[in-house]
Amino acid sequence: MTHLSTRRKVLSSANTEALRRRIPVRTEQAVAGPEGRAATLASPFLTFTESGEYFVFDGSSGVMSRIGKLVYDILNLSPIYDIYGEEDLVKLRELLTPKYAEAEIDEAVGAIQDFNRQGFLEHKHKIYELFDEKYESAQNGYFGGCLWLNLSHDCNLRCTYCFGNGGDYGHSRMLMTRETAKACIDYWYAHLNRDQKLFDVAFFGGEPLMNQEVLFFAVEYINQLMSGHSGRVRYNITTNGTILNDKLLRLFKDNDFLVSISIDGIEKIHNRNRPFASGRGSFGRILQNIAELKREFSPLSSQITVRKRDIPFLTPSVEMLWEAGVNRVHSNLVFHEDEIYEYEDFAEYEQQIGRLAAMTFANIMDDKPYTYHGLVRLAGRIHKKKFSDSCFLWQNGAFIFTPEGDAYRCYRYIGNPEYKLGSIQDSGLALLDNRFKKERVSKCSACWAQLYCGDGCAYENEIYTGDPEVPAEAWCAKTKIMLKQSLKFYARMQVECPEKAKQYFNWS
Ligand code: SF4
Ligand code: SF4
After folding, report:
1. What keywords are assigned to this protein (predicted)?
2. Which of 6, 263, 273, 466 could make an SS bond with 11 (beta carbons 3.0 to 4.6 A apart)?
């Protein structure tokens, strides 16, 4: 068992202090009351309004409920007034009686207490049970995760924010050989839980299409190995979209690939952020290739990486990609120790996401297949109560191999020797035994967003706080914005078009 605190990389204290000063802690409506009140409302929840209705999202159970205005008002006051304390209840009645009758207030307080007694609005820490289950299951030799091959540690672009240092992850540029690919695939196959219905295989880089020969080999070899199984292999590839030909198109189509193209939206922003190694802009080439892919694939997905300075242009960037024929546009903010976000950045980000939520809602109403998809996908997970226990690092979520055959649990830690788990060349490579245990984080345990955040991203935490287990304020801010907007989107669908919501969230 390995505990990450023994592997901490500590940023310079000056840098960390600068971040603390410049990123303000947002005060949410979420409630985290005093310690030792487990049976009271010292539990995490978020109240919000949408389409003229009032809602509470219970962060400890993942349940979103429509509530009356009076319950909404009491919940918002409950961090200050303890609804289980006689004196506080008197004060609460005094505050609310101008608007409500005393009997009404007592009835609403009773309803909230009942809700509380039924197990809602109380700390359960369900996310840790889920992480623990996955951690324990590895002891039985079970591997249900993804095979992830970094086919190429080389790239033809030089993106300004690349965490892989232009594709080579700080080491020499190289491509995976057939022999290494075969050894990695054999290792994965030998440890696979063959009873599964779905087997995920991901190709990544650098730019994976700089190593087409081994891509073709890997797909053919995996298909051959899996031909006797009833389950399906789901291939996905993340590409910068600059390389495409008929053979690749056929490979993607015949094998039902999920193709995700990285493109940053508006031409000027994209070319500034993602130039070719020569310095020339890559936008035109990618747009041509999107048109080719569009002829064969639907839905088509893309990913925008948003720099701090480009946050105000997120909406026009998404619109531009919809117009180019990309159906599902995702985005994420750049997280890098030089990218320091301030309150105004997150205020702007929230406005942009709100706008995209409204545009996505309008598209769905008009049966147009264009969505800002991170938001829709999260709403779908809220609908199905599919919580966020998927960080590869804390479980056997993936066998990740570099071109040399080095094994990691998280692709973003590649090149950091503290996170290397071994090599495919090691005769005793035991990836199922070599895993990291998720520790309890007190800040996250009191947070309404925990079930859909999973205590954040260890890698990004480490960038900003120097410790993978100490949440970064910037992460918390962007995650809560996205989750709140997804909850509002989901609530809006339920209030304004319940039939469509039912139909939509069964498949999205
Ligand atoms: S990382 Fe931040 S947003 Fe996520 S659960 Fe922890 S405190 Fe909440
Ligand atoms: S540490 Fe972050 S990037 Fe790495 S697997 Fe977990 S969530 Fe993903």
Report:
1. 4Fe-4S, Iron, Iron-sulfur, Metal-binding, S-adenosyl-L-methionine
2. 466
Q: Which CATH class, in words, describes the domain spanning 129-423?
A: alpha beta
Strands (DSSP E) found in 299-397: 301-306, 328-333, 371-372
Structure pTM?
0.87
| Contact of 143 with 192, CB cutoff 8 Å | yes
Ligand at minimal distance from the CA of 477 is 1
Q: Which residue has the tokens 């990123």?
A: 23
- Closest ligand (CA of 398): 2
List ligand 1's pocket residues with C-beta within 6 A: 443-444, 447, 449-450, 453, 455-456, 471, 475-476, 479-480
* DSSP reduced 3-state for 401: strand
- 295-342 tens-digit pLDDT: 888 889 999 999 999 999 999 999 999 999 999 999 999 988 788 999
The response to whether residue 392 sits with its C-beta less than 6 Å from ligand 2 reads yes
Residue 440: name the closest of 471, 474, 480 by CA: 471
Distance 302 CA to ligand 1 centre (A): 26
Instruction: Dig out the tokens for 84 from the structure.
Output: 């289980």
Cβ 290 under 6 angstroms from ligand 2: no
* SS3 track for 200-251: EEEEECCCHHHHHHHHHHHHHHHHHHHCCCCCEEEEEEEECCCCCCHHHHHH
Give the distance, in angstroms, between the CA of residue 202 and the centroid of all CA atoms in the same chain: 16
Length of the chain: 508
Nearest ligand to the CA of 448 is 1
Sorted by where each begins, the domain ranges of the chain are 45-124, 129-423
The reply to whether omega before 62 is within 30° of 0 (cis) is no
Do β-strands 174-175 and 198-204 pair in parallel, antiparallel, or remain unpaired? unpaired
pLDDT in tens, 182-214: 999 999 999 988 888 899 999 998 999 999 999
Instruction: Please answer whether residues 70 and 103 qualify as being in contact, where contact means their C-beta atoms are separated by less than 8 angstroms.
Output: no
- The C-alpha angle 154, 160, 165, rounded to 5 degrees, equals 35
* Rg of the chain (C-alpha set): 24
Question: In 42-163, at which residue ranges do the beta strands (DSSP E only) sit?
Answer: 45-50, 53-58, 63-67, 146-150, 152-153
What residue's CA is closest to ligand 1, atom 5? 450
Which H helix or E strand runs over 135?
A: helix 126-137
Is the CB of residue 307 less than 8 Å from the CB of residue 280? Answer: no
Q: How many other CB atoms sit within 10 Å of the CB of residue 185?
A: 21
* 149: phi then psi, degrees, rounded to nearest 5: -110, 115
Quickly state the pLDDT bin for 125 (edges 50, 70, 90): confident
Strand partners, 53: 50
d(CA 461, CA 469): 7
Residue 116 one-letter amino acid:
N
CA-based end-to-end distance of the chain: 37
